[in-house]
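Predict the 3D structure for this chain.
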Amino acid sequence: MKNSKTKQKKKEQQQHTGITVHAFSDLDPLVVKIPANLKLEEVFKKLGGEYTILLKEMHLEKAILLCSILTKSNKVRGSEKKRTRYTPLHVRRLEAILTKEKKRMILTALTQGGVIERSPVNYRTGVRSYQYRLCFEYRSGPVKEVEIKNEKLIQKHRSWNESWERKELVEHKGRNQILKSASEMRFDYVVLEEVISCFSAEKQIEYRCDVREFEENRNWKRLNPSRRLLHRGSSFPRILREALYWGDEMKPLHEIDVSSSQPTLAATFYKPDSFEKARYKHIIEKEGFYDFFANRLVAIEEFADVTRQDIKDDSFVPLFFGSNFSDLEPLEKAIQDLFRKEFPDLSQRLRNLKWRNYKHLAHHLKMIEAKVMIDTVATQFASQFPDACLISIHDAFHTTEEHLDVLKVMIETAFEAECGIVPKVKTKMISRERMSESLAAA
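Done. Predicted structure below.
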């Protein structure tokens, strides 16, 4: 009787939420990676006392899951500086899967046992949580695969992932349409060979690896902490996009790009009645942010040959993404000084945002960008054109030619509502003209 009620309850839950409720017998083991030299049983036995309870299978596998998150974070980051960064573990997802009390006990045990170490940065309520990383002994060596077999833990892990995916991706019209459109991109292999053949043998191998990864990860997706939506096309090499088309009809892709998007979004930090904002708005809308700096710096003999592209390349570090205390190149220093002179109010506000951590400003700008481009523009477009192509590339979209004008108006309206500035929006065709239909891949 009890089993039949449980089955009925699960069935009702699935119908109500749309989330698959797996039977325990259907669950495959969850395979994770942890350091090869990590032996958690020995760590907990050595600690003794209250931590001996963690030797139970379920609690031990919870500790393995925590260590696997730090292992993955350590291995995917590339450079030594990035591999040694700390990772936040006080997040809702882990507290839902592991329960808050046990997670804290496991973190304390792992810290005291010398497996992980906590960041020296102080905890601040509502602003910054404690972060962790593996100790050097464990983060510098090889890894091994371990199976998590506890059915209840696997059930919680998968249920959370499915509910999160449904809430953040499936039920969000804009993100859902972007992911659907990204999965329908196709290569014309004749054009692809023309593009790749222009490069050296070493570069050709690299690009062919990118193409294989692109084809294998058709449905790959990720929503990063800044709310930027990542998919298989978001970081695909720009030169290879010339061989991409959309849908079975192989429609050419066009790009619609916001010019000076980061400087435009920075206007949101002004007070509404700021006189300086009115001048800043006039410069971006009429002259252009980078052109404004280029026109003034060329008057200086040292920078007589500087171009708009030079200004664009060298302005991000001193103004937006670099520390207040960075060592700057001469052109970067000149840009920073001119920005402080021309826009003292905005300059001080941006410096204040970077004071404790220079990454805060970049994080804020990316969140505003995602709000405008994904939550506003993409959602509005998806409501009006549910079957159209819409692929986001951060501050730009890829779409088909017939929707360029509508999308341009939506972007201008959304930026004006958020920042009070109508940005310049550029469009161009990125797919090459197709010379042969016979060898094109559908």
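Confidence is low (pLDDT under 50) at residues 9-27, 76-82, 436-442.
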